[in-house]
C-alpha cells in the first residue's frame, strides 16, 4: 500500500528539520560503536570488580564466551505494574545461558506511580522523574560491560526515561520487556460513577476505597488506557518489543515465552553478530512518526505530547505539536478503550489488540512498514498476534475485529481523525484531546475563573461557586513553576458540573492524566504562566473561547495592558526542594519539559 500523503509529508518535514541534529547523533553513536572496548583487553582489576558477584556466570564471563546483556530494571513492589519484575533477573539470566550469553543487572531506576501521588505534593516530582530515570539508565550502562540491553519498565515517565537514557548508548541493541496488565476488575463506568458520587459527597471514603480496590487489585499494569498502556502501544509501533508483547498478562506461559524470546533476540542482534540492530538505527524519524500514528489511532495518553518530543530529541530528531496535529488530521480513531470507551486493555487485546491496529495502519498506508525493528523483519511482524503451539512461540493473523465497540477498521473508524488537536491563540498553544470529548462540547465560550492550585478548584466546587457556565483556568502548573504535576483530581468535579448541564472547560499549563477525558480541556499550555505567559494575565470573568474544531484558544481581554499575576514561591517538603535545578532549567512542554535535555544542548 502506498504511504498516505500526510504521513509522507510530515515524515519528510521531520527528516528535514532533524538533519543536523540527527547526523550529529548518528556520528556519536558510530564513534561509540568503534570505541567499544574489547573486554579481553580491559584491565583485569576492572573485570574482577564486574565479575565478582556473578558466581554462576563467572567462568563464561572470564572466557568472554558470548554477549553480556545489561538489565536495567525499574522494579519496585509499590507499583503494581512493576511488581512482577522482582523475579525477572534470575529468569532472564537462565534464558541468556540458553544461547551462550550472560546477563547482569546493570542498575536500577526509580519508578514512581502517578496513581499514588495524584493530588499529593509528590506529584511535583513526577515529570522530572523521567530525567532522573534517564540519568540512572546512563549510569547503569556507563560501565562498558554490555553488548545489549534489556529494559524492564512500563509506567508513565519510566518508559520514556529508560528510552532517553538507552538512546545515549544507541550503539547497543535494546529490547523493552513489559510484564503485562492485571486481570480486569470492576467495570470502568462503575469506578467513574463512584468517583463522581464521592465528589458530590454522596458516598464516603470506605465506599470509594472498596471501588478503587475493585479496579486496582493485583500485580500488573492498570487496565485503563492511560500513559502506561500507551507506552506499551508505542513500543510496539516503534518495533522495540518482541511483536505482540504489550498486553499479555503476567504469570502466563505466553508471557514467559515472550520474555525468553526477548533475551534470545537481543543476544542475536549485537554488533558482533550478522544481524546488527542497534537502538540508534531502530529509533529513527519513521519510527517516531509511527509512534505518533499509533497514539492517535488508539486515542492514547495526552502525556505523550510531552514525551514524544523528548524521546525524539534524545535520538537527534525534532518532532513538535505541529507534526502531531497534522498527523492527527489524517489518522482515524480505530480504538475505543476506557476512558474513551467502556472496555479496558484486556478486552482490547482480546478483540485483536495491537496486531489488528498495526495491520490496519499498514494496509491503509498510515504507518511506515520499512523500519528496522528488534524482531526478525520489519513492522509487518507486529501485525501478528503471539500464541503458543505446544509451548513453542508462534505468531498468527489476528483476523477481523472481535468487538466493533472496541476496535474498528480504517474503513469504518470511530471518528475520521486521531483526536489530538492543537489549539492556539493569544493564550498560547495547547493540546486538546477531542477523541475523549463529545463533539457538541468541542467549542466552549464562557467567563473564566482563575485558580493557582487544583485544591482551590475543589474548594470552589464544594462551595457551589462553579455552578454555572465556566472555563476553569489553573495556572502556575508548568515545568518551571512546580514540575508540571498531573491535575487528575480536577476530573470528577468538572465532570459533575458538566453532568449538571453546564458548559464547562479547563485550561491549564499543567498536565492531565492519560486517563482523563469527558471534559473539554486545553492542557500543557505554553508558554507557561511562570515568566509572564498569557495565563498569568487572565482575571476572573474574562471571556475565553476554546474550540477544537477551529483550533482556537483565545480571550477578548486586553492582556497586553495588564501586569502578570505575582508568581508563587516554590514550596519545599516531600523532596521538592531537591528538584530546584530541574525546575530552573526546564524547557517548554512542547519541547518535552526537560531540564536534562535542555542543558545537554539536545
Automatic annotation (TrEMBL):
EC number, as in UniProt: 4.2.1.12
Cofactors, names only: [4Fe-4S] cluster
Signal peptide residues on this chain, from the entry's feature table: none
Species the sequence originates in: Pelagerythrobacter marinus
SUPFAM superfamilies membership: IlvD/EDD N-terminal domain-like, LeuD/IlvD-like
Primary role: Catalyzes the dehydration of 6-phospho-D-gluconate to 2-dehydro-3-deoxy-6-phospho-D-gluconate.
Pathway: Carbohydrate metabolism; Entner-Doudoroff pathway
Skewed-composition ranges (Basic and acidic residues): 560-570
EC supergroup of this enzyme: lyase
Protein family according to the UniProt entry: Belongs to the IlvD/Edd family.
Manner of cofactor binding, per the entry note: Binds 1 [4Fe-4S] cluster.
Matches recorded under NCBIfam families: edd (TIGR01196)
Superkingdom per UniProt: Bacteria
Protein name per its UniProtKB record: Phosphogluconate dehydratase
Keywords of this entry: 4Fe-4S, Carbohydrate metabolism, Gluconate utilization, Iron, Iron-sulfur, Lyase, Metal-binding
Gene3D superfamilies recorded: IlvD/EDD C-terminal domain-like
Cross-referenced Pfam families: ILV_EDD_C, ILVD_EDD_N
Residues annotated as binding [4Fe-4S] cluster: 155, 222
Recorded GO MF terms: phosphogluconate dehydratase activity
Residue span(s) of domain Dihydroxy-acid/6-phosphogluconate dehydratase C-terminal: 406-592
